[in-house]
């Protein structure tokens, strides 16, 4: 089949692309509202784009009614966020934290999770998390203005927290110890433990 995006429904384009562009890693994002309430939400429109300086991008899209999600509102106001690891033991909590609560109500109460202070930014990171990336906002690029339109939140990673328990003997993250999970289309999620190795060509 073919989909000519110009004449297709937005929801059909969305459902097709989330199934095709997969798996997607999940940023589990903590932000602070202007009044100090901690917001937590997952975003799978997410990746890491360069190391010098380290740059991440994720996209809280506009809601179906065209309004902004709490995470986006908070980052617009504070310019800071933390990306917490998304790993298999937390799958249920990650999903729960995507609940749409009224602005200013914290998803942390839903999942009963503690936080720890960050070092370089004000939003806290989750306690007992395999890794957390403290980020400062570089730029927000809105692309479109209707339902499910993107807001590219570009952030610089200013502090990396890693639990030594997920490191291998070479000092790098060991995927079997980290146990990352990722999003596919529909209600599908995936594990990342079926690995194979290839050496890069010279
Ligand atoms: C695993 C997962 C990934 C998600 N990825 C995105 C995403 O990339 N962009 C988005 O706008 N919403 C995404 N959502 C939905 C948001 O998490 C949801 O709208 C949430 O309520 C936003 O919270 P906030 O209003 O507190 O920012 C995802 C949900 C789940 C469960």
How are the SSEs ordered, and which strands pair?
Blueprint: H1 10-20, E1 24-25, E2 27-32, E3 38-43, E4 46-51, E5 54-58, H2 70-78, E6 80-84, H3 91-96, H4 108-111, E7 115-116, E8 125-126, E9 131-143, E10 150-162, H5 175-178, E11 181-183, E12 189-191
Antiparallel strand pairs: 1-11, 2-3, 2-6, 4-5, 5-10, 6-9, 7-8, 9-10, 11-12
Give a brief description.
The chain is an alpha+beta fold and 202 residues long. It has helices at residues 10-20, 70-78, 91-96, 108-111, 175-178; strands at residues 24-25, 27-32, 38-43, 46-51, 54-58, 80-84, 115-116, 125-126, 131-143, 150-162, 181-183, 189-191. The strands form 3 sheets. The protein has a 7-stranded antiparallel β-sheet, with helices on one face.
Strand content bin: 25-35%
What's the order of the H and E elements? HEEEEEHEHHEEEEHEE
Shape: globular
Mean pLDDT: 97
CATH fold category name: Pnp Oxidase, Chain A
Report how far apart the termini are.
39 Å
Number of helices: 5
From the alpha-carbon coordinates, what is the Rg to the nearest angstrom? 17 Å
CATH architecture: Roll
Looking at CATH, the homologous superfamily is Electron Transport, Fmn-binding Protein, Chain A
Give the bound compounds. flavin mononucleotide
Query: Roughly what percent helix?
Result: 10-25%
pLDDT under 50 segments (min length 5)? none
Biggest β-sheet: strands ordered side by side in the sheet: 3-2-6-9-10-5-4
